Amino acid sequence: MKEQKVKPSILPGFMELLPKDQILFNKMMDTIRRNYEKYGFVPLDTPLIEKSEVLLAKGGGETEKQIYRFTKGDTDLSLRFDLTVPLARYVAQHFSELNFPFRRYHIGKVYRGERNQKGRFREFYQCDIDIIGNGKLSIINDAEIPSIIYSTFKDLGFEDFTIHINNRKILNGFFESVKVDKKIEVLRIIDKLEKIGYDAVIKELEEIGIEKDSIERIMEFIGIKGSNDDILLKLKELNIENEQFLLGLDELNKVVHYIRCFNVPEKNFIIDLTIARGLDYYTGTVYETILNNYPQIGSVCSGGRYDNLAEFYTDQKLPGVGISIGLTRLFYQLREAEIIGENASSTLSEVLLIPMGETLDYSIEVANSLRNEGIVCEIYYEDAKIGKKFAYADKLNIPYVILIGEDELQRKMVSLKNMSTGAQNIIEISEAAETIKNRL
Amino acid sequence: MKEQKVKPSILPGFMELLPKDQILFNKMMDTIRRNYEKYGFVPLDTPLIEKSEVLLAKGGGETEKQIYRFTKGDTDLSLRFDLTVPLARYVAQHFSELNFPFRRYHIGKVYRGERNQKGRFREFYQCDIDIIGNGKLSIINDAEIPSIIYSTFKDLGFEDFTIHINNRKILNGFFESVKVDKKIEVLRIIDKLEKIGYDAVIKELEEIGIEKDSIERIMEFIGIKGSNDDILLKLKELNIENEQFLLGLDELNKVVHYIRCFNVPEKNFIIDLTIARGLDYYTGTVYETILNNYPQIGSVCSGGRYDNLAEFYTDQKLPGVGISIGLTRLFYQLREAEIIGENASSTLSEVLLIPMGETLDYSIEVANSLRNEGIVCEIYYEDAKIGKKFAYADKLNIPYVILIGEDELQRKMVSLKNMSTGAQNIIEISEAAETIKNRL
Predict the structure, then answer these.
(1) Are residues B95 and B169 in the same domain?
(2) Distance from the CA of B345 to the CA of which of A361, A378, A412, B126 falls in 20 to 30 A?
(3) Are A72 and A27 in the same domain?
(4) Predicted-complex ipTM score
C-alpha cells in the first residue's frame, strides 16, 4: 500500500530562494552588516515572539490588524512586526546595563499579515541601525547616518542613488507660520506628491478645508528646488520667525555641513521638502533613499530622528536616529528588474575535485591542502560517468575542476581545468591553489 | 496625567543577550558558517512559519505537543521545530531545480514549547549541514562530516573534544544475530548507558524481557573498547554472519579509513558502539561530539546517515547525511561554565575619536581615513566632560582612543592613546591606523 504524500509547498507571501539567489541575498546582507559594523554599531538579536501586551503597548492602527497573534497555554503572544518596538523594549529593559549613546544594528525577520499581493511579503528581513541617546543626542549623528547609507549602497554596487533629506521641525514650523493646524493631514497629503502629482495634492488640500492662500504658500514651499545650498538660502529668505522652523533650519544646515565632512558626494544627497516619513513618530531629520534609475521601487532605505524611543515602557527620555533597509523587498525588486542575478553562481565552491580510478586518498589530500589555503572546494564522490561529473560543475557554475587520475597521483600533481576557457594543465597543487585564488 | 507604562520584559525560555555576549555569540556563528562554507555547502533560508499540514506530515510524538501552532484567517500554521523537516519539504518541492548531491547549510532559529527549565530554550539556533543524494549517496560523505566537525570545533577554540562514531547497521545486525527483536527498545536503553550506568541498563533490559544470554552478549558487545583499530578488529572477530552487521562493519571500516585521509587526529574520533541517536530516523553512520572536559554538556554536535529524507512529500528516494549544532544551548552552557566570555568586549569599535574644542570637521576627516583602512571606529559627538568620554571607551572596552584638540588639528596629526597601557603619542593618522591594525 502506498502512503499518501503531502504536497510540499510554502505559504503565500513568504519568500524562499534557490541556492543561486540565496547566495546573492546573503552577499547583500553581509555587505550591509559589514558597513553597519564599520561605523561602530553592535549586533542585537531579540526573540521573534514577544508578549502581545509588550509588543502592542503603543496599540491601534493598521499594524495591529496585520499582526500574527496567538496563544500558547494561557500566554498571549505576537510575532514582531518591526525591529523598532523590540529595540524600545530592549533599551528600556536593559537601560542600566547599556552605554549611551547606544549604537546597535539588527538584521532579522519581521512578520506582517499583509494582503496577498505580488512583491508584498508577510515575512521579510529588515536591516536597521539606531543610535540612542540618554536624555539627549547630538545632531551630528543625523549627519553620520547618510554617510552610512552612502557607504552601504556604494558597496552594494549602486552609483546613481540619492538620499533625500528633510527636517520635520521645518515642516511643522512652516505650517504653524501659515496657520495650518491640520498638520498631520497636510503632511500625509504632501507625502503623496511623488505618487499623485501637484494638482491632485492641491485638490486634496482643498478637500480638507485648507484656505486658498495657505495652499498657495504650501505649494510654493514644497516647490523650493535647486542645489542644497540654494534650498538652504531660499528657506532662510522665507524670513519665517517661527521658533520650530528656525530650529529645524539650523539643524538642517548643520546636517548638510557635516554630511559634506563625511565625504558624501553632493550628487548623492539632496534636501527634499516634500518628504515627511509617517505621521507621529519622527520629530527632526528624515531620510529616504531613491535609486535614480528605478524610482518605481520607492525608497530603499528610510528613517529619521525621533524624540522618544521607549515612552511606553519607561520614563527615561531616549531620543534616537535610525534607518532601515527592507532587504527582502529590495532583493525582490532588484531581481524582478534583472538588476542583479545575471551570471550568479549556485555554489560557493571554487573548485570541484574529480578523482578518477583509485585516487580518492590522494584527492582528499589535495582537498585538505586547498582548504588549508582557504579555498572552498568539494570532491565528487559519487559513482557516475565523467560527463555527469562535469555537468555537475557546469550546472553549479563552479569555475575550476581538478582532475586526479593515476598519472597525477604518481607525479603528486593535479590537472587543473578552467571551466570557462577550457584550458587544462598538469601542475603542482600549490600552483593550482595560487591560480584559483588569483582568478579575480 | 502620567501614562501607564508597560513593563518591558520577554517571555521565559527565550534567550536575549547584552551586546558583549551577542558579539561572542555572533563570532561563534560566523566561525560555524565559515567552516560549513569551506566544504562547499550552500546557504538555505526557509520560512519560520509553514503550513501545519506540511510541517507535521510525519506527525505524532513529543514534537507535536511542543509545537507553536496557530491559525491566521483560516490557515493552520506552525513555527518550524527543526531545520530537517523544512529541508525535506524544500528538496521535495524544488527537486527538479536542484543539483545532486545537494550540499546545504542552514543556520536559523527553531521553536519548541519546552517545559520551562534552566538551560532549556523555546527559541534556539540550529546550525545544520546535510548532503542529500538523488537515489544514492557515497559512504565517503559520512567520512567527510567528522572532518567538518573537527575543523569547526577547532576554529571555535576547542582542542580536547572527541567525535563518537557508530553505525546503526552494526547495531541492528548484532541484535538480529542475538535474536533480539525489540531493537528499538533495546537501542533506547543502550543510548542511556552514559547517563544511567551498566547495572541500570542491565536491569532495564531484563524488565523488557530480554533473555539473560542475550543481555550478556549485548553487554559484552557494547563493552568493546580500545583504539579504533582494536574495535574494528574485535567486531570482525565476533564472526557474526548477519548481512546488516557485515554491511555496517564494512561502512565503518571505510569511514575510519577516510576520516584519517581527512587528517582528523586519532585522538579526536572514536568508535563508540553505545550511541544510537534516536530511534527511527538514522540508518547508518551516527555521530556525537563530546567536549572531554565538559561531558556534562552532552553532545554538542550530532547527526548521522538516513535513507530517506522526504518520504512524506515525494516518492523520490533521497538518502542523506548531516549534523546539527544547537548553538543557543551550546553558548549558554559554555557561558555558564565560564569557558567563554572572559575579557569580552561590548563593542566592535577599535578606536573612539574624541574631538576637543572646534575640531569636529577634522575629527570626521580622521574617521573617514580610518574607516577607509577598514578600521571600525566611532566619534564621541555628545557634549560631556572628558572624563565621561573616556569612561565610555573604558566601559565598552574600546582598545584605543584618539584625542583631537586644536594642536593636533594644526599639525594634522592625532593623539593615540592605548587604553590598556595608558601610553599616548602624537602621530600621523596613517601611523595611528597601522598601530591599531597591528595590535593583535
Answers:
(1) no
(2) B126
(3) yes
(4) 0.95
